[in-house]
Amino acid sequence: MRPIRTSGRSALSFARDRRGNVAIILGLTFVPAVMMIGAGIDYGRIAAARGSLQQAADAAVLAVAKGIVSSTTDQQARSQSQVYLTTNYRNATATVTSAAIATDRLSVCISAQAQVATTIMHITGQASMSTQVTSCAALQGGISQTDTYEISLVLDNSGSMTRSTSGTTKIQALQTAATSFVNTMFTKAPNRVKFAITPFAAAVVAVDPTSASTRNVAWVDKKGANSQHWIAFGGQTAATAAGFSSRFDIFTKLKAINSYWDWGGCFEQPVYPLNVFDTTPNPSDPETLFVPYLAPDEPDSGYDNDYLDDDGSVTTTTRTTTSKGKGKKTTTTTTTCSDVASGDWNELTHVCKYNVTTAAGGGDGPNSYCPDYSTQTIMQLTSTQSTVTSKISNLVANGNTNLHEGFMWGWRTISPSQPFASGRPYSSPNNHKVVVFMTDGFNNWASAPGTVTGSDYEAAGYYSYNGAKNKRFPDGSTGNKVDYQTALNAASGSWSDYHDKSREMQDELTLEACTNAKAAGIEIFTIGFSIPSDPIDDEGLTLLKNCATNKDHYFAATDAASLNLAFSTIGTGLGSLRLTQ
To answer: Which of 514, 484, 518 lies closest to 276 in space, CA to CA?
Structure first.
């Protein structure tokens, strides 16, 4: 065996050999390089996660801010924020760590954090990294020092509001919730808020009928010139022959028979499409004037509202005084109305019968679907808080539901035009016109199959006038393009067929009115008070959703507590929310 020989030269050569250095250097720098790249990737993921968390927190704080009321605590705000955060952010570790409501209840801040799993850095033992965000929202608008508000409360006072929910009637729940809302607004915006209240059922008491001046205002058809004034009373010629120049003359006769039969303060709808716009009444255009509501005496057999005897002749005397020279001459004209001709329509329209001196039959009388003026008259815009709350406390529920009629009169209360002309101009800067529209039901116009009218006499009159068109119905020219007179005439005559078609018609009028009000700059909040034992159907809820300014302006209340929350949320949301951090 040969011995191993070494030499200094060989050792020196080995030391000088560079052929393996690159591999060694790469080996020594590989791990740090990978860690740096991995850290960059992980930090990029953290940044993206933080952005998503911030967006989710912003959405949460805005949602919570809308619902803040005087009793909301920080813990409740935190819990509510967590619900919204969980819904809008997929990371299950996301947590709202704190929530703080400002002492003036006008802003709220939340802080949130989330853990983000690492991809490369877990090699070093760091399995996740934390990211934190803060978001704040403040309320503007109704609580500013300059903005003003005109708020129309359009409140369903139909008979179904007497039904109970959670141990209280629905009308009582409404009174509590609406009163709280009013008090909140007067606290937030003293001297800058006005309220009007429109109680509605099948019709609306627009003015106090006991005031003589309300019969003589320019926007009332006191001369009987509107095309709808005499349509159910035999026409203007027959009315004149009987001694009547307007329906107020008939009411004078009826009051002499029964003190409760004086005019009740309700009006009938204008003709279409005037009944879906804020149309200014013009005495030179009688169609724009409002016709006093007077439910006709119906035939003596087979009709509900029979309160006079249709048979017999009546003699009337008209006295005319003229001046000739120095003296006056009085002439007397005697007009005799013949016995009523046979047939339901002739009996219904026999206008001479209103000259009788005694009542006959039964029925509800001339104010059949007009609510009681003593409690249900519209309260026009006022800045007196006690007047508003007193009005709410005296509301009484009775009658059918006409959403269209209620909404239109509610709109008119904040309009700058007649009949009330109490609202600021639509163009007034920093002024908000708001309608809060609450109902527990849907449009309901009583049908009367087998009659010449097809229905009871409500704010839109009858379904049909012995085959003549009801000019208050949509004629197919706008909206959903349906001619509802044709649709009603095609109904089979059953209660359900008539009723379904009339509801479709009223829904169309309601939606057109809402659309036109929004176009005029009205902010609309809607509340469907739909309790489990007496629910609003899907069609009714959809109508309310579509009527509202947007989906955030629609509320569904299922009990007294949620009704109160809806009004409270509206009070908070009247100002526009904005993020401040």
So the answer is: 514
